[in-house]
Amino acid sequence: MSFEKIELSALHAEPFNMIGRRWMLVSAEKEGRVNTMTASWGGMGVMWGKDVAFVFLRPQRFTKEFVDAAGRFTLSFYGEEQRQNLAYLGRVSGRDEDKIGKVGFEVCDFDGAPAFAQAETVLVCRTLYTQPLDPAGFAPGCDADERWYPEKDYHTMYVAEIEAVYQKTE
């Protein structure tokens, strides 16, 4: 298994499908240790003249500590055959066990940021901006606060420049 670095413009991506339906892993390294979590909230676009991805992490997620410390992280995408592993990686905390080892994923280095050999596509990202969501910003009639934040544990939004894209080659 190997990966080829490609231009972002060559990535034929459907972010609604990749992120919202197939899910992704957000991965980062801190003090020589890698952690990851499954995410299904985020997007891709252009901001400040840069190609960016944006993701949302809850304050209690262990991976958030890694993303905050590293300043760089990966978003990686997988085939349907990895669905059970992605569900597990989203359900179990790396604080409690070696969840990456448990699913048998092999950590790989992508320009100094971690992702996994089992990925189909990897985006290497550099944090540009972070901001906790402010409940005062919910528009009248929006039910997001009641529906998604009964514990008032508002996500932090990360806007990150996409520095590199890698796709698996056969």
Description:
With 170 residues, this protein is an alpha+beta fold. The chain has one domain (2-169): Electron Transport, Fmn-binding Protein, Chain A (Pnp Oxidase, Chain A). 21% of the residues lie in helices and 43% in strands.
- Average pLDDT works out at 95
CATH class: Mainly Beta
CATH topology: Pnp Oxidase, Chain A
Beta content: 35-45%
Secondary-structure class: alpha+beta
- Note the run of SSEs as H and E: EHEEEEHEHHEEEHE
Q: Return Rg in Å.
A: 16 Å
**Terminal-residue CA separation:** 7 Å
User: Structurally, how many domains make up the residues?
Assistant: 1
Largest sheet: 8 strands, antiparallel
What's the number of helices? 5
CATH superfamily placement = Electron Transport, Fmn-binding Protein, Chain A
Specify the overall morphology: globular
Instruction: Name the poorly predicted regions.
Output: none
Helix content: 10-25%
Please report the total strand number as a whole number. Answer: 10
Q: Do you know the CATH architecture?
A: Roll
